[in-house]
Amino acid sequence: MNLLGWVGFFLYALFYRHFPHIAATRLSWIHFWTAVTGLPAMMAGLALVVLGHMGLGLPLLLGGEFVTVISVALFICIGFMATKAEPVSAHRESLAPAE
């Protein structure tokens, strides 16, 4: 839970701070809401399962896990889209010696 909660959200914040133009997109908002709803649901479900309330805890745990996996997959997609490299030919002029 620490890894998903503290470290995960810390990495999300660093990424969106470094790429503010990505933070304003619709996909990033979907990522935000899936992360914010999935993790607490998963934690509550896990607590209920540990306390012996399997009937309510297990569906909540599995639903939270599913939403959290969707959130992580969205973040991976957002990260690849934000950091995709430009073709080398676009940088050729900047690498040419000055005349």
Keywords:
99 residues; 81% helix; elongated; mainly alpha; single chain
Task: Compose a concise summary of this entry.
With 99 residues, the chain is an all-alpha fold. The protein is 81% helix and 0% strand.
Oligomer kind: single chain
Order of helices and strands: HHHHH
Shape: elongated
- Count of individual beta strands: 0
Question: Any overview of this molecule?
Answer:
The model has no long low-confidence stretch (mean pLDDT 86). The chain is mostly helical. The protein contains 5 helices and no strands. The relative contact order is 0.13.
Annotate the secondary structure layout.
Blueprint: H1 2-18, H2 20-23, H3 26-50, H4 54-83, H5 92-95
